[in-house]
């Protein structure tokens, strides 16, 4: 451990309950909004940013980098240095102009128009999964019955990935995002996932289909901008992030609504509230709390504190989304909240989540359909007995037993 970092609080900090951020966040916002912490994963220091305005400033500043290979970058999982340097950067970890090139290639795939076209198929997938739930009868695990299959099916169809392969890539994704596995296990998961996606891309280079990977290949042939490895990297990122985060939000959002019956009753009574409910649930949980890690390229000043070049920065979305200066009574779930859309659950700036329109589509269809078709849905286990993903980069629940 870095001796100079021993006096700093350890990060990550535990949530006090699944419905609230770590208690330390509010104290830091009030007394030390730009503060030092020690990373549990490697004992290195990093800056924690906890106010909404400061986080927007950091994420919008070209003097900070998303490049996880740079010294000082606050890694959230243990990765051997030789592996870190050998693995190509993904779209998420690139800075402009390389990031800009790939974002322009991907953006049309997630446009509002494309999501409108996709909505009927998403609705069909959700209905089919709920049909299966009703046929099986309760209790069922909502995670395996609905939360995981819906985004997995959707992203598989979008990318042109055989859905029968989903157990493999879901396992690899879970291992990659876990803080609690060995470096060897994580390295093996990275290798297997890369090999799998590389095979898909190679096959589509010879026999393209009507899917996102094929369109990226054809677009790049018409106007060469990236290499084969870059298309593999983009496809891998879409495959992992396209199901993992949304699956966790489906389960957590369902749990929150079941545990807040007055909020659920309002959604059931007025479907026009669904879009605002989705935004509020995204704000409330902020499941990818530190996924916007950065490293300073130059000395920068945030909130009166100077962060030196080469120092790691963790803009904490969960802290920003519970900032009293932006959200009144922030620890209360309120689906009528007018300012909910100001949340930073999808990040901010040039790296703002490119798949946010897809996530909103899937969450809205799932919540609206689930409670309409199974109005008597209820938990089949005590909330205290649920196992939450405290060991993962993306927060969630392992199982969610429900019945009706």
From TrEMBL:
<dbReference type="InterPro" id="IPR001128">
    <property type="entry name" value="Cyt_P450"/>
</dbReference>
<comment type="similarity">
    <text>Belongs to the cytochrome P450 family.</text>
</comment>
<keyword id="KW-0503">Monooxygenase</keyword>
<dbReference type="InterPro" id="IPR002397">
    <property type="entry name" value="Cyt_P450_B"/>
</dbReference>
<dbReference type="InterPro" id="IPR017972">
    <property type="entry name" value="Cyt_P450_CS"/>
</dbReference>
<protein>
    <submittedName>
        <fullName>Cytochrome P450</fullName>
        <ecNumber>1.14.-.-</ecNumber>
    </submittedName>
</protein>
<keyword id="KW-0560">Oxidoreductase</keyword>
<keyword id="KW-0408">Iron</keyword>
<dbReference type="GO" id="GO:0016491">
    <property type="term" value="F:oxidoreductase activity"/>
</dbReference>
<keyword id="KW-0479">Metal-binding</keyword>
<keyword id="KW-0349">Heme</keyword>
<dbReference type="Pfam" id="PF00067">
    <property type="entry name" value="p450"/>
</dbReference>
<dbReference type="InterPro" id="IPR036396">
    <property type="entry name" value="Cyt_P450_sf"/>
</dbReference>
